[in-house]
Design brief:
5-stranded antiparallel sheet; OB fold (Dihydrolipoamide Acetyltransferase, E2P); 12 strands; mainly beta
């Protein structure tokens, strides 16, 4: 909320509360990735991506059955994805929440994301709080 001073004819020192104004149109998220394979250009729907792996200035989209490489940074890809559907679990990994079968904790306290296809991805210490927050929201 923002408070603004208003000048009226009755009272020169009256204040009013101004509700926050939405900035522009509602946020839209990425629907599909554009992947170049030689001379071909393919489209990979975001729902088909199981997880995304960082590879320097590229990302590797792991989808069934093939992985694809896209020239984009991990931070940019993360900003284009819907945060209710994708979660960053590591500096080098973003996971599709629909593809998550469960979570495991090792005796040392390390958290591991178990994917439906049997894949396992580690959760780094810096992203554990966001994973726990996501768990609380889903319960």
């Amino acid at each position: 909320m923002e408070i603004q001073r208003v000048r009226t004819t009755e009272d020169m020192n009256r204040w009013k509360i101004v509700p926050p104004q939405p900035e522009g149109p509602p946020r839209t998220y990425l629907q599909r990735f554009v992947v170049k394979l030689g001379a071909r250009i393919m489209f990979v729907r975001v729902e088909e991506v199981v997880w995304i792996q960082s590879a320097a200035n590229y990302v590797r989209l792991h989808s069934n059955p093939n992985p694809y490489t896209v020239r984009e940074t991990m931070a940019r890809v993360e900003s284009m994805l819907d945060p209710t559907r994708f979660l960053r679990i590591h500096r080098g990994a973003i996971v599709n929440l629909e593809a998550v079968e469960g979570l495991e904790t090792s005796p040392q306290g390390n958290m591991i994301v178990v994917l439906r296809g049997g894949g396992r991805l580690p959760v780094s210490r810096s992203y554990r709080s966001s994973v726990r927050k996501m768990l609380r929201k889903s319960m």
